[in-house]
């Protein structure tokens, strides 16, 4: 039960269904018993469009397993990636006042499967520098998580990319050259061919991602953080609550609750009575979404929740790999190939979230304009949003991007054969 601290796991490397007091399904339907059941477990066995079918094992593309707790080679990565999610959660308080530049001049242009980019000096279409956009970091992180969430009662991630494709097509106007070359085509031909390739790609992305979800049945961050935190700390055998499979201690982020830290005025004073447990600096959960924010506080690790609606919390299926990352990169590959440019029309696409229009809690404090130079930048941001939303670890995201690239390229190659009248 999510509302109660802690988690009970038989295997900390496998998906744990949640029990949610007031649960809403992906289709927006209330679930009376509130216990999750895996959605789409058959999808890995569905016939692909441009990629090979998964066959009997349901896995057409396999990069290998995610990090595993207790594994000699990946135990440290498992804990480190848990810390990444906690650190992202710690950045969700606008009162911190941290300001960052989110323009394409400062972020994006990543190598596939990384967040190593530092933006672009110039807009290649206008030849001018991108204008800086300085915003509150917590506002940006929360907007990012909500814009890409695509949870209940939404168009879902594949539909989101159809919306993006529609908008880009509208912006191109009469300059509709398939592949960016040849004579312009009318909008009907453009749309028919675009949606064949685009939706073939996201169809394959679902097969590839859910095939891996079925094979590896991997755990979600809410279970990872609560489980590790419940075990104790893994940094120092000389300190209380040591467990080699616990959370690593990180000053200011993951700390041991002691009688000294819970004294009046101490940083863990609100956690008095829980000495010996692990505290994390993280988002404290939803309050009144119309008037307040959950803020970032020292909380018990066993009570952590992701930045999501309390009726949803975490999707009802295993984590590895991220569907958002796989869908989005597959779609970005098709949009790049189909339009003949990785860049959005004009070298820039913008989507604005108005002040006070967040749904999970109050905010943002000011308007936030999400900006992307390229379809790849938008896709990477979709994957990153799931870290700030507390839904995935980096391994889910980065491998999803790589698999999505393969799906998108294969879908485009097959679509071109159909355009030429050659079929499969």
Q: Which features does this protein show?
A:
8 helices, globular, single chain, three-stranded antiparallel beta sheet, mainly alpha, 424 residues
How does this model look, in words?
With 424 residues, this protein is mainly α. 33% of the residues lie in helices and 8% in strands. It is built from eight helices and nine strands. The chain has helices spanning 75-89, 137-147, 156-172, 187-216, 221-231, 323-339, 375-388, 394-419, and strands at 23-24, 30-31, 99-101, 134-136, 254-256, 278-283, 296-300, 349-353, 368-372. A three-stranded antiparallel sheet has the order 5-6-7. Helix 4 crosses helix 8 (394-419). The N and C termini lie far apart (49 Å).
Query: Could you tell me the mean pLDDT?
Result: 94
Strand order of the largest sheet: 5-6-7
Question: What is the N-to-C succession of helices and strands?
Answer: EEHEEHHHHEEEHEEHH
Percent range of helical residues: 25-40%
Can you tell me the residue ranges where pLDDT is under 50 for at least 5 consecutive residues?
Answer: none
Helix count?
8
Report the biggest beta sheet as strand number plus sense, adding barrel if it closes: 3 strands, antiparallel
Oligomeric state of the chains in view: single chain
Number of strands: 9
Approximately how much beta-strand content do the residues carry?
5-15%
Rg calc: 22 Å
Structural class: mainly alpha
Task: Please outline the helices and strands.
Blueprint: E1 23-24, E2 30-31, H1 75-89, E3 99-101, E4 134-136, H2 137-147, H3 156-172, H4 187-216, H5 221-231, E5 254-256, E6 278-283, E7 296-300, H6 323-339, E8 349-353, E9 368-372, H7 375-388, H8 394-419
Antiparallel strand pairs: 1-2, 3-4, 5-6, 6-7, 8-9
């Amino acid at each position: 039960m999510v509302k109660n601290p802690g988690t009970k796991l038989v295997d900390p490397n496998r998906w744990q269904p949640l029990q949610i007091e007031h649960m809403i399904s992906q289709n927006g339907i209330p679930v009376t018993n509130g216990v999750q059941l895996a959605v789409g477990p058959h999808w890995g066995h569905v016939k692909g469009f441009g990629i090979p079918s998964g066959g009997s094992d349901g896995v057409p593309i396999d990069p290998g397993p995610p990090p595993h707790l207790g594994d000699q080679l990946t135990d440290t990565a498992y804990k480190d990636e848990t810390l990444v999610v906690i650190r992202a959660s710690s950045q969700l308080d606008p009162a911190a006042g941290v300001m960052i530049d989110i323009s394409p001049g400062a972020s994006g242009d990543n190598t596939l499967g990384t967040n190593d980019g530092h933006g672009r000096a110039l807009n290649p279409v206008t030849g001018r520098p991108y204008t800086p956009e300085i915003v509150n970091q917590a506002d940006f992180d929360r907007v990012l998580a909500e814009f890409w969430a695509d949870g209940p009662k939404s168009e879902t991630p594949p539909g989101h990319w159809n919306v993006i494709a529609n908008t880009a097509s509208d912006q191109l106007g009469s300059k509709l050259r398939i592949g960016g070359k040849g004579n312009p085509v009318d909008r009907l031909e453009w749309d028919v061919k675009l949606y064949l390739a685009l939706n073939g790609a996201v169809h394959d992305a679902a097969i590839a991602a859910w095939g891996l979800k079925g094979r590896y049945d991997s755990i979600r961050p809410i279970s990872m953080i609560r489980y590790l935190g419940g075990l104790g700390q893994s940094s120092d055998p000389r300190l209380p609550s040591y467990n080699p499979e616990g959370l690593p201690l990180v000053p200011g982020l993951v700390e041991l609750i002691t009688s000294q830290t819970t004294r009046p005025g101490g940083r863990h004073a609100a956690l008095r009575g829980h000495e010996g447990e692990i505290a994390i600096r993280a988002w404290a959960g939803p309050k009144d979404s119309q008037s307040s924010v959950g803020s970032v506080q020292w909380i018990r690790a066993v009570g952590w929740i992701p930045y999501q609606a309390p009726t949803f919390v975490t999707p009802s299926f295993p984590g590895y790999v991220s569907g958002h990352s796989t869908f989005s990169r597959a779609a970005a590959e098709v949009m790049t190939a189909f339009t003949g440019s990785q860049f959005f029309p004009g070298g820039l696409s913008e989507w604005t979230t108005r002040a006070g229009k967040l749904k999970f809690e109050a905010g943002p404090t000011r308007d936030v304009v999400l900006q992307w130079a390229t379809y790849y930048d938008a896709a990477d941001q979709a994957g990153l949003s799931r870290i700030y939303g507390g839904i995935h670890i980096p391994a889910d995201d980065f491998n999803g991007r790589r698999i999505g690239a393969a799906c998108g390229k294969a879908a485009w190659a097959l679509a071109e054969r159909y355009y030429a009248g050659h079929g499969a």
